[in-house]
Design goal:
single chain
Length: 186
């Protein structure tokens, strides 16, 4: 597991920023600011006074920007939350490294046949605006999920997913020009 500092640097780099001046510019980008507060809360002990202050800030930004990420979610380094302020709801799921999430996205639990399930998302996944991911599904790595897609089935690696119901199209490296500023490029 990467240290908190390295994880935040990777998140900042995904926004095309680095260094202290980049951090200051990043603070004024809603997606990075919310992600930073989220990461700092998760790094604190539950009884920490700083955690309480950070939770108050997180609540403020939740109402201001519309982002809602469960503190039980596990999110890998290089997370990019779109700066377009619109509701983004992410439940207690696992998200891999270098993932992009656009506005108006919902990722959460569903109940099917009396069983609750949540998605697991791999590395280098781009999720378009208005998409909904639900059910106990596994989304592989190098996946592009088109805007306004409803996804409730497993997706193999190297695929493009479009529509409602979801149509899966195999494609080699579909996120090549969509997921940029990863540590692999340095």
């Amino acid at each position: 597991m990467l240290s908190l500092r390295k994880t935040i640097k990777a998140d900042l780099y995904r926004h095309g920023l680095k260094g202290f001046s980049g951090f200051l510019r990043g603070w004024f980008q809603p997606g990075f600011r919310y992600t930073l507060i989220y990461r700092l809360i998760c790094a604190q002990k539950k009884s920490s006074p700083l955690r309480l202050i950070l939770r108050i800030l997180r609540r403020r930004y939740r109402f201001r920007y519309g982002y809602e990420i469960s503190l039980d979610a596990e999110i890998g380094e290089g997370f990019y939350l779109s700066n377009h302020c619109g509701p983004v709801v992410i439940g207690p799921i696992k998200i891999g490294r270098y993932c992009n999430i656009a506005h108006n996205v919902t990722i959460g639990r569903s109940h099917k046949n009396g069983k609750a399930g949540r998605p697991t998302i791999g590395d280098r996944v781009w999720i378009g605006a208005g998409s909904v991911l639900t059910n106990n599904i596994t989304i592989g790595s190098d996946i592009m999920i088109a805007p306004n897609t409803f996804l409730n089935v497993d997706v193999p690696d190297n695929s493009v997913v479009i529509g409602n119901p979801a149509k899966i199209i195999k494609k080699e490296n579909p996120t090549k020009h969509y997921i940029i500023n990863t540590r692999q490029e340095i």
